[in-house]
Amino acid sequence: MHPKQLLDACAELVKRTLTFEHPADAVVSRFFRENRYLGPRERATLAETTYTVLRKKLRFEALAHSGSGARERRLAILGFAEVLREQARKEGKARNKDGQDSETFIKAALLPQELKWLAACDSIQPEELMEAHRHNLPEWLVEPLKAQLGDGFWQLTASMERSAPLDLRVNQLHDKRSDVRKELEKAGIKAEPTPYSPMGLRVDGKPALTKVDAFVRGAIEVQDEGSQLLALLLDAKRGEMVVDFCAGAGGKTLAIGAAMRNTGRLYAFDVSGHRLDALKPRLARSGLSNVHPAAIAHERDERVKRLAGKIDRVLVDAPCSGLGTLRRNPDLKWRQSAKAVEELTQKQASILESSARLVKAGGRLVYATCSILPQENEAIAEAFSAAHPDFVPLDAAELLEQLKIADADKLCSGGDAGRRYLRLWPHQHETDGFFAAVWVRKA
Ligand SMILES: C[S@@+](CC[C@H](N)C(=O)[O-])C[C@H]1O[C@@H](n2cnc3c(N)ncnc32)[C@H](O)[C@@H]1O
Fold first, then answer.
1. How many whole angstroms separate alpha carbon 80 and alpha carbon 293?
2. Distance (Å) from CA 154 to ligand 1 centroid
3. Ligand 1 probe mutation, 246, 279, 300, most atoms within 8 A of CB
4. Nearest CA, atom 3, ligand 1
5. According to its UniProt record, which residues of this chain constitute the active site (predicted)?
6. Dist. CA 364–CA 390, nearest whole Å
7. From the annotation, which residues make up the binding site?
8. How many angstroms separate the Cα of 168 from the Cα of each of 173, 214, 232?
9. What is the tens place of the pLDDT at every residue in 106-146?
10. Contact, 283 vs 258, CB < 8 A?
11. Among 232, 233, 254, 270, which is best to mutate for testing ligand 1, by the most ligand atoms less than 8 A from CB?
12. How far apart are CA 306 and CA 47, in angstroms?
């Protein structure tokens, strides 16, 4: 594809995502379905350009005040140039597969006046930028994050401008991490063991996985290391009755089912039948037969009432703002609002309240989100503890140490000793942002 055409396509895709009518990943997938002729490298450039614009929207918009032509094209040019330079840097060479270096490719795509404008933009130093153009966050998010992180705020915002690594979870039902790692290496995929999760592999780059044998036979699933740690905290055992209350497409369900060694009974509840449908092919690959997906109408569904007091372990992976996943879903910061978060917190409290009724005496309850906001995390957990003296909070750090997770202390915060809640951050742990609180119901 000629560089000019590729840039035109980038500008079109940027325009479509910036309406924020649909999640960016859905807009990108649809664009690729409509343009099947696009090759893998072109797709990577298109997606990364769009995601770069979403990540750095405020800075790029400020720069796009100058220059000429459609605004989306100016935004796309800034993203496009960054992505091409980054691709060349990562590949350790300045040339792409057609033998052109990244600067020649950019030159071929841009008009002469656009090139001049890009050079002027490139010459601006980060310290000359206003604060908002450096953190690229909506104003309502800035204070809650600064209040939690202090100077770490800037490390967080820098980490959120990068893409997330590709993590895999090895299905320990049939496979060992070390064996799968060797198998992937033979298939040309390099991966390192993840630092905290004993079942995780961190892949070098973003290779296509769906045709790899280990994937087809269910030995691996794509899952962020943080998400793996949440499933571990539930510590589900052989033969138990377990509920994954907000199972969605089953990322954590599959990890829990394997931890139960395919025994006992694991209910995967969700209000979205559509998401549970996406669990089915994954379940088939995994070889698990102890998982029972069930669509519920709401958290007070009859099915939930029938199981009251009968369940050994309940995971509530609550619907949340998703702001811990901004490296993967940068559009969320523009699609979410303080009001939407406020509404979510009411839903989260209600789901936690209902799901807790399932837990039997001596059983375990885990509340988790992929949010980095205290109002969706500590505030929900603390209000629940205060209202339910029969649920005793457990220290997540203690539980992780029992599971032999390295540096458990550094993964946790809150409570008297700073060990109460699992609290993962992209800039500190190289995972998505996650929270988890754990209770045991008094016997
Ligand atoms: C964070 S996602 C779950 C992700 C999933 N556990 C995983 O690991 O892939 C939250 C899920 O909660 C579901 N949900 C929303 N309201 C619910 C409710 N009242 N009861 C049960 N599930 C609900 C959503 O449909 C969504 O799939």
1. 43
2. 31
3. 246
4. 248
5. 370
6. 12
7. 270, 317
8. 15, 11, 15
9. 999 999 999 999 999 999 998 889 999 999 999 999 999 99
10. no
11. 270
12. 46
Pair 316, 358 in one domain: yes
- Beta-sheet pairing, 265-270 with 241-244: parallel
Residues 311 and 407 in one domain: yes
Residue 218 pLDDT grade (very low, low, confident, very high; cuts 50, 70, 90): very high
Domain residues for 179? Answer: 166-222
Which of 396, 378, 379 is CA-nearest to residue 439? 396
Name the nearest CA neighbour of 430 among 411, 413, 408.
411
Query: In the block, which residue shows the tokens 């597969």?
Result: 97
CA distance 334 to 170: 34
Pair 190, 229 in one domain: no
Sign of the C-alpha dihedral computed for residues 181, 182, 183 and 186 taken in this order: positive
pTM for the predicted model, two decimal places: 0.95
Nearest of 52, 5, 47 to residue 27 by alpha carbon: 47
**Tell me, what's the ipTM?**
0.99
Distance CA 350, CA 343 (A): 11
What is the full DSSP assignment across 206-218?
----TTSHHHHTT
- What's the CA-to-centroid distance between 284 and ligand 1, angstroms? 21
In a domain, residue 141? The reply is no
The Cα 358–Cα 112 span in angstroms is 66
